[in-house]
Amino acid sequence: MSDTLTQAGVRTGLFIGGTERFTDETLKIADPGKPGAVVGEAAAASQQDVADAVAAAKEAFPAWAALGAKERARLMAEAIAGIADDRDEDAAILSQENGKVRFEAWVDALVFEIRWNLALMLADEVDTDHTLPAVPGAIPVDTKVSYQPLGVTTIIVPFNWPIAILGAALPHALLAGNTAIVKPPLTAPLATAKLVQRVAEKLPPGVLNIVTGKDENMSGLIQNTDIAKVCFTGSVNGGKRMMEMASKTLTRVTLELGGNDAAIFLEDAIIDDTHLDRLYAAIYDTTGQICMNAKRVYVHRSRLDEVVNGLSDRLSKAVIGYGLDEGTTMGPLHSSAQKAFVEELIQEAKDAGADVREFGELPGGELAGGNFMRPAIVVDPDPSLRVVTMEQFGPVIPVIPFDTEEEAIRLANDTWAGLCGSVWTGSPDAAQRVGGALECGYVWVNDHGATRLDLRAPFGGMKQSGIGREQGIEGIRAFQDTRSIATIDPEALAAMAH
Asked: CA 24, CA 57: separation in Å to the nearest integer?
């Protein structure tokens, strides 16, 4: 892997109707680990550029939809071929603009390819219709129910795992017969834009378009009446804004929003190095900036010290540093605002008298002043503290004791969120019992987090963690509508006359 980018940095354009387009105004993309450093520049679309992207996608839609799912799958397979050839460079760029360690950035791009190919495996199901037979004496028609694409779709992804998250929706939208406009994250668009353009260049013009730019020029990606659907991944407040904007034109939405995931360690939990390594990754991967990370850990009181000591041992070995540097295990937070928020949560816990344990050393030199934080554990905090009630999205975790299974379930469900959860136990029956009682969209057993997500399964949240599902055939159906065609059955109709 290349250690750094070229001195000139990276420049990305828009990709509209099969043509790359550069703009006079650009977005300068900051390096969160090196104060004052710029990773590269991305095109800043005007409102007209956005309108052009919608028009290009609209023009391409009829021909793309008419191909049928199997032919679309063939073209999509050709488009993704060779995507790994530039993965080292993609990872280097993403590490610098996002802050995550290089290996995580590499996996980010890998997951996109895996999700794309898993979607293509569903091609035979996409166009499959079914018939509802006539019911003599009641319903005198045979009704064929088939599926049709929606039209032009917009897919908006966040900074934390932008390429991987795009893979949960984009291939499903395209395979379903829609055309798409991808909106990479405002503060980390470079790697996503470069990778998606390589795919888009191999598809018919207008089928896949890319727009980067300032939020004030992006409303046309949501409120243009030619936009059939918006798929948004981001914060809860961001999702509310998306829904409010989309309501003006009745544009459909899928929202994958924040989480406050609970990990529950029952009394019989297996707490060995293997399971502690899984828990550590589930909390601190990407410096805690993953929606499906564990955000609260509930442990049977008799096992509390084992979990706290296990996490402490691993945190004592954490190397906080620049994402591309050899040996770094924890990079900076992506933004200074998020760093300030997490620091506020930790300080509030300290002020309340909570047992806050911090680990590691902050880097100095050219990294001094970057968005780095010492990871922390908050042991047995008051449950009303914001470090428990809010999504931290940073390297801090509350570890909270409980006495009964019923108490653990109640505490886990006592939240605004419902994205994911996990149950840690040696009993398959207890895993199913407790897992089935959790109010969330996805549950792991003896594991937690993105590294173990079944990329074939429907994924999405309950409560304020989102609306709709991504991945799998459910993710494809989310980008389709049904059409019912009813034909009179003469015999069934005659039977009704009697």
From this structure: 23
Calculate the CA 33 to chain-centre distance. Answer: 23
Q: Which amino acid is at 350?
A: K
Can you give the pTM of this predicted structure? 0.96
Q: What is the pLDDT of residue 193?
A: 98
- Length of the chain equals 498
Terminal CA-CA length for the chain: 78
Place of tokens 């990872």: 91
HSE of 165 in the Cβ direction (CA atoms, 13 Å)? 24
Q: What is the pLDDT of residues 395-415, one digit of tens each?
A: 999 999 999 999 999 999 999
The chain-wide mean pLDDT, for the chain, equals 96
Question: Rounded to an integer, what distance in angstroms lies between the CA atom of residue 35 and that of residue 335?
Answer: 11
Query: Environment class of residue 211 by beta-carbon count within 10 Å: exposed (0-12), middle (13-18) or buried (19+)?
Result: buried
Strand extents, DSSP E, 200-276: 208-210, 227-233, 252-256, 261-265
- Confirm if 27 and 189 have CB atoms less than 8 A apart: yes
Which residue type does 73 have? A
**Mind telling me the catalytic residues?**
256, 291
Condensed to tens digits (0 to 9), the pLDDT of residues 64-98 reads 999 999 999 999 999 999 999 999 999 999 999 99
Rounded to the nearest 5 percent, the helix, strand and coil shares of the chain are 40, 20, 35
Nearest to 492 by CA among 196, 143, 225: 143
What does each C-alpha distance from 138 to 135, 394, 494, 497 come to in angstroms?
Answer: 5, 59, 11, 10
